[in-house]
């Protein structure tokens, strides 16, 4: 995993891919959306930092409540933290990481921020 959190401080969650883990193993970190459902909304967007560095890197996904990937990335992304904002528009979401071909593939996430909201308008419609 990364040697430190975002900006050199803070905590992070990471998938440890050393033995006895093998290629294709699935790691999951899920959020039930309770803060959003408590106010009658769903998860709108999720903003987070990710770190994917190593020759054995696998695939990181953000999935919605139906298990559909709404964002994914694979392979070595360099020894740095990157930020992304993903439209989830679901009652809950999960980070799923599928182990790659070697132990040098610990994916990490940090500073996850959830924004509650309604789903975006369907294609071809505009908000009024």
Account of the protein in words:
It is a single chain. With 128 residues, this protein is mainly beta. 3% of the residues lie in helices and 45% in strands. It has 1 helix and 8 strands, in the order ββαββββββ. It has one helix at residues 34-37; strands at 13-14, 26-31, 42-52, 59-64, 69-74, 82-90, 93-98, 107-117. A 4-stranded antiparallel beta sheet has the order 1-8-3-6. It has a 4-stranded antiparallel beta sheet with strand order 2-7-4-5, with no helix packed on it. A hairpin with a 4-residue loop joins β4 (59-64) and β5 (69-74). It is globular. The relative contact order is 0.34.
Topology:
Elements: E1 13-14, E2 26-31, H1 34-37, E3 42-52, E4 59-64, E5 69-74, E6 82-90, E7 93-98, E8 107-117
Antiparallel strand pairs: 1-8, 2-7, 3-6, 3-8, 4-5, 4-7
Brief characterization of the structure:
This protein has 128 residues and is mostly beta strands. The chain has 1 helix and 8 strands, in the order ββαββββββ.
């Amino acid at each position: 995993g990364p040697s430190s959190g975002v900006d050199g401080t803070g905590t992070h969650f990471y998938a440890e891919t050393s033995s006895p883990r093998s290629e294709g193993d699935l790691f999951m970190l899920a959020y039930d959306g309770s803060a959003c459902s408590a106010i009658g909304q769903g998860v709108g967007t999720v903003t987070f930092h990710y770190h994917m560095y190593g020759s054995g890197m696998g695939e990181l996904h953000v999935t919605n409540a139906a298990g559909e990937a709404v964002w994914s990335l694979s392979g070595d992304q360099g020894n740095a933290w990157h930020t992304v904002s993903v439209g989830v528009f679901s009652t809950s979401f999960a980070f799923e990481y599928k182990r790659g071909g070697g132990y040098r593939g610990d994916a990490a996430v940090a500073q996850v921020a959830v924004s509650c909201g309604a789903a975006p308008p369907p294609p071809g419609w505009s908000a009024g």
